[in-house]
Each structure stands twice: as structure tokens, then as C-alpha cells.
């Protein structure tokens, strides 16, 4: 039997009941233990009753009313036969069960596909894991790891571009707030969005719509192969919207986007094409979009108050502990300064990190003056390394010992240089 037969029968029952002079829904409802509104809805054919017993009771009630008033015609008698209703009801219930099952299967498939996509929902990420700088520690209990965010002029455009999809690159100096601005833009996205930080680049092929591909320090990720694949993902209409959100230092941006010299090979065609027209400039000076936001933040977070008082318009650099790093580099113990300077020169000249202890031990003695060197004890190395690695104002020191994540490191361990000092070394 066609499942729609049930509704044809219900429409006929409603007409027959109307011919009885519309007996009170209240009386029927009391007899069936449901609300009067439910009786009217069943007869109108809008909702489908959950139980066959309710339908049969309604049919019996109409038949009883017709019998009581001597209006039980042969047509109505046939219409109220329980077997007829039972078959029609079960056919409709079966059809609805198939539809419900199909809907559930599709929903389950969508959930499985969503869970299989690379990355995690945005709200499950810790910004510190993504490379956002922890603020300075001033000894005040109860403060969050990140200070209150004060929007700047670039934030409005940044949030719009991130939500729209495409490539967005935050360009600026070290500790100017690039990663924090990127994180705040991601946080503003709705719950459909995921964030994927490349680890296994094979996962890039599974990236789906509403995904942010997070490239902190983008120059470390943008090989030509990766740039070509990212361009294909971003331009694929079936994945849209996908956002590649990157941060990069100004000099690295220039190196990747500069046109090749005439007659010279082009080292970065795919990276240059990917980054074209994607720049969002992050200024080194801190100018709030709304001065009242800064005032409110200073009143509620003593770290911002100190940064604004002592650093003026370089708030973000101060919050990342830069003044203490510079102080160690310029005024620290002689051999700690020598180790830092050697690391800065090594990075400026292109030596890869981690910097090995043996290299630093050989290079550092060339930096002190003759008088300074004569005063250095023979066992200077361990103490100087400890001083250069000492955390300052709640952040890692000028040098940081690299901690491999393998139980037995495959390569010798070494030291990493604080990014701001690396940038300073390139300038000096």
C-alpha cells in the first residue's frame, strides 16, 4: 500500500467527522488522553502520530460518535475499519523510517568526513602552541597567559580577509604582534572553521572547506613544492573557503616576492605567485584603533600598563621580553655577551640552527677585548651558556637549548637564538 494512503484516509475521516457536526475536540482528547490541539492537528494531517494505538482510538471515537447519533453510514463504517487504518499507518511509518535512516546516514557521513579533515576546531587550539608569544611575567597572580587584546587598524581588514578565504600574510618585524593578530582573527571565525598547522604535508590533499592553514614563520614552510600545492588548494572551488594565514618577517617577505634579475633564474615563482597581493602590514609601533580600548586594557592588566609606561609605542615587543633580551646582549657578563654575539653573526651569515656548543665555544673568544679576555676564567663555557640561556621576564633567554622530542636524538643537540636578536643582528 502507498504510504500516502494514510493521509487520504485521515482527510476522509476529517470530512466524516465534520458531517457529524464537529464533536468537541475536548471530549475526544479526554477519551484519548491527549490535548485538544493534538486532535485537531492529527485530523488536519500536519503531524504524524507516534503510536498506531492513538490513530485507532481516534477512529473508534468517531465511529462511536456516529453510532450514538445514528449517523453511522455504510461509507463511514467502511472508513473506520481498523485493519484498513493499520495497513495505511504502517506503510506510512515504514516510508518515514527509511527517510529518517537515510538522513541519519548522510549526517553520519558528513560528521565522519568532517572528523577526517586535517586540523582541529579553532576553539580547541592553544595559541601558545601556535607560536603566539607568552607575555612577560611580572609576578602578578591570576593573569592569563596572554594579555587583553587591543585591536589596531589592520585588525578589521584582517578579520574580513581571513573569513573570506584566500591567502593572507602578516608582514612585520619580530615581536610586533603578527602571530597574536593572526590568532585573534582566527578566533573571530564561526564554529564551522578548523585550523590545520602543517606537520605531515601529505594531509594537505584532505583539507576541506572552512579550514585555516596556519603558517607561522612562513619562510620555513614555503618550498616551491608546498607553495604550488597550497595555490591549488586555495583556488579549488570545491574546497572554498580555505584560508592560508601566514606570518613572516619583512626581509623574508622581500626575498620570496622579489622579481628575479634579468637573465637570472627565478628561485621562487610559486611562492611569489601565492603571496601576491596577500600582504597585511603589521607596524612596529603600537597605535590602538580605539584609544579607549587601550585605556581599559591598561586598567585591567598590569603587564600592559608597564609595557605602555616603559616602552611607549613598542608595547608588543616589550610584552615579549625584548628589552631584557637586549639588555643581556649589550650589558650582560662578558662571555654570555660573546656567545650571544657569535650566535647572532652565525645566523646572519646563514648558519643553520641549532648552533652546536662546540661551534659557540670556538667562536665566542673572538669577541671580548684583550683586557676582558685576560680576566675570563678557564672554565668559562658552562657558566656563560647558563647565563645566556637564563629566562628573562618570563620568556626564554637570548639562547635556548634545543630539546629534541625523540628519546635518542638522531643529531647533536644545540642552541636556538631568540628571533628578535636574530633580526637585530641582521641590522647591526
Describe the protein.
- The chain folds into 3 domains: 5-113, 434 Repressor (Amino-terminal Domain) (Orthogonal Bundle), CATH 1.10.260; 124-281, Rossmann fold, CATH 3.40.50; 321-427, Arc Repressor Mutant, subunit A.
- Helices cover 51% and strands 7% of the residues.
- It has helices spanning 5-19, 25-32, 36-44, 52-68, 74-79, 82-116, 153-164, 178-187, 224-234, 250-257, 269-275, 291-300, 302-311, 315-319, 322-331, 334-348, 357-363, 370-374, 380-388, 419-427, and strands at residues 120-121, 166-171, 194-196, 211-215, 242-248, 279-281, 399-401, 415-417.
- Helix 9 (224-234) links the parallel strand 4 (211-215) and strand 5.
- Helix 12 (291-300) packs across helix 13 (302-311) and helix 16 (334-348) packs across helix 20.
Amino acid at each position: 500500500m502507498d504510504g500516502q494512503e494514510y493521509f487520504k484516509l485521515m482527510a476522509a475521516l476529517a470530512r466524516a467527522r465534520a458531517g457529524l457536526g464537529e464533536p468537541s475536540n475536548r471530549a475526544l482528547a479526554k477519551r484519548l488522553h491527549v490535548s485538544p490541539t493534538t486532535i485537531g492537528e492529527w485530523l488536519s494531517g500536519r503531524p504524524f502520530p507516534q503510536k498506531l494505538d492513538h490513530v485507532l482510538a481516534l477512529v473508534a471515537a468517531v465511529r462511536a460518535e456516529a453510532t450514538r447519533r445514528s449517523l453511522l453510514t455504510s461509507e463511514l463504517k467502511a472508513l473506520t475499519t481498523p485493519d484498513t487504518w493499520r495497513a495505511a499507518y504502517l506503510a506510512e511509518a515504514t516510508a518515514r523510517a527509511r527517510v529518517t535512516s537515510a538522513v541519519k546516514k548522510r549526517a553520519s557521513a558528513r560528521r565522519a568526513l568532517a572528523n577526517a579533515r586535517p586540523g582541529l576546531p579553532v576553539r580547541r587550539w592553544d595559541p601558545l602552541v601556535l607560536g603566539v608569544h607568552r607575555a612577560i611575567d611580572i609576578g602578578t597572580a591570576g593573569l592569563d597567559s596572554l594579555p587583553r587584546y587591543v585591536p589596531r587598524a589592520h585588525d578589521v581588514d584582517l578579520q574580513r580577509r581571513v573569513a573570506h578565504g584566500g591567502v593572507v600574510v602578516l608582514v612585520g618585524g619580530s615581536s610586533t604582534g603578527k602571530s597574536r593578530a593572526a590568532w585573534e582573527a582566527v578566533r573571530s571565525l564561526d564554529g564551522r572553521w578548523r585550523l590545520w598547522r602543517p606537520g605531515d604535508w601529505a594531509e594537505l590533499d584532505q583539507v576541506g572547506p572552512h579550514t585555516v592553514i596556519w603558517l607561522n614563520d612562513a619562510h620555513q614552510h614555503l618550498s616551491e613544492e608546498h607553495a604550488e600545492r597550497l595555490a591549488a588548494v586555495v583556488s579549488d572551488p570545491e574546497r572554498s573557503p580555505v584560508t592560508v594565514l601566514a606570518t613572516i618577517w619583512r626581509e623574508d617577505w622581500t626575498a620570496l616576492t622579489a622579481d628575479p634579475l634579468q637573465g637570472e633564474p627565478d628561485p621562487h615563482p610559486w611562492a611569489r605567485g601565492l603571496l601576491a597581493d596577500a600582504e597585511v602590514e603589521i607596524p612596529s609601533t603600537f597605535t590602538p584603533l580605539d584609544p579607549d580600548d587601550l585605556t581599559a586594557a591598561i586598567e585591567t592588566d598590569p603587564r600592559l600598563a608597564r609595557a605602555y609606561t616603559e616602552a611607549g609605542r613598542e608595547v608588543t615587543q616589550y610584552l615579549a621580553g625584548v628589552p631584557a633580551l637586549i639588555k643581556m646582549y649589550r650589558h650582560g657578563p662578558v662571555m654570555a655577551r660573546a656567545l650571544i654575539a657569535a650566535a647572532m653573526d652565525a645566523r646572519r651569515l646563514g648558519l643553520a640552527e641549532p648552533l652546536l656548543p662546540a661551534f659557540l665555544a670556538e667562536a665566542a673568544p673572538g669577541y671580548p677585548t684583550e683586557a676582558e679576555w685576560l680576566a675570563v676564567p678557564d672554565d668559562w663555557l658552562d657558566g656563560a651558556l647558563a647565563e645566556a640561556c637564563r629566562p628573562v621576564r618570563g620568556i626564554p633567554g637570548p639562547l635556548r637549548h634545543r630539546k629534541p622530542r625523540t628519546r635518542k636524538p638522531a643529531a647533536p643537540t644545540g642552541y636556538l637564538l631568540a628571533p628578535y636578536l636574530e633580526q637585530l643582528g641582521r641590522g647591526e
